[in-house]
Design goal:
By secondary structure, this protein is of the alpha/beta class. Helices cover about 45% and strands about 15% of the residues. It is globular. About 50% of the residues are buried.
Length: about 290
């Protein structure tokens, strides 16, 4: 259902407020360059510092601007199951095509707790849902066996696997088979994951290089492994640069350097350190992005 090059789009700000005009422009930039779906209000969209009104508005803007040209998958995760259900229902009401739900953070639930959390959301909201496993941020790892239990639910259609572990991704693929689409959550291992059976990526790098990410995925799907490999290796340096500090600080700086939005993140995130900004500028110049 959801596959290909999917961007976790940044949320542009202007003096602390969501910059609606720039957000619409970023959506157009993605669609013009072959992006297959758009995720507003994910980690890269600074969902954790958007209030509920802003969250709904960002989803609404993206849904309106996309206008059914590609799927919109709203980030709706929470560490409160009740809140996750409420936010997911709002996204459905706003016209989102799917939801991306990060594992509950801070609570550190057991595997049974994770299973019951996701099942409760999937039972409550009839919207295609993507599990999102990123233990480096949440402090909990959604294990392959738990993913397999969830994969039989009709509303759970995919997982964004962002452990950085090809072994874990492979175990999910082996256990779930055709029940679940696996998507890479790490740009730098998208091609190896696709070689194992993943169907695409939810990408940070696509914010600045959407055409190249899309071309790599398309080349692999067309059986042009040489071109896919070339693009994978070509993109490795810039993808690594997107994590020179905590996401989305580097990518928002990169978007700003390209003149597409202001270089503004919300506390407790801070602007990119000057030494790292100099490194990012040098890398972006290598790629002729600036």
């Amino acid at each position: 259902m959801f596959q290909g090059s999917i961007v976790a789009i940044v949320t542009p700000f202007n003096n602390g407020a969501v910059d609606e005009e720039r957000l619409r422009e970023l959506v157009e930039f993605q669609i013009e360059n072959g992006t297959d779906a758009i995720v507003p209000c994910g980690t890269t969209g600074e969902s954790s510092t958007l209030n509920y009104k802003e969250h709904d508005r960002v989803v609404q803007i993206v849904v309106e601007q996309v206008n059914k040209r590609v799927p919109v998958i709203a980030g709706t995760g929470s560490n409160s199951t009740h809140e996750a259900i409420e936010i997911t229902q709002h996204a459905k009401d706003l016209g989102a095509d799917g939801a991306l739900l990060v594992t509950p953070y801070y609570n550190k639930p057991s595997q049974e707790g994770l299973f019951l959390h996701y099942k409760a959301v999937a039972d409550a909201v009839a919207l295609p849902q993507i599990l999102y496993n990123v233990p480096g941020r949440t402090g909990v790892n959604l294990l392959p066996e738990t993913v397999a239990r969830l994969s039989v639910h009709k509303n759970i259609v995919a997982i964004k696997e962002a452990t950085g572990s090809l072994q874990q991704a492979s175990e999910v693929l082996a256990l779930c088979g055709d029940n679940l689409t696996v998507l890479s959550g790490d740009d730098f291992i998208t091609l190896p994951m696709m070689a194992a059976g993943a169907k695409g990526v939810i990408s940070v790098t696509a914010n600045i290089m959407p055409k190249e990410i899309s071309s790599m995925v398309d080349a692999f799907n067309a059986g042009n492994l040489e071109e896919a490999r070339r693009l994978h290796l070509y993109l490795l340096k810039i993808s690594n640069a997107m994590f020179i500090e905590s996401n989305p600080v580097p990518v928002k700086t990169a978007v700003a350097l390209m003149g597409k939005a202001r270089d503004e993140v919300r506390l407790p995130l801070a602007p990119l350190m000057e030494a790292n900004k100099a490194k990012l500028v040098a890398i972006m110049k290598e790629y002729k992005l600036i």
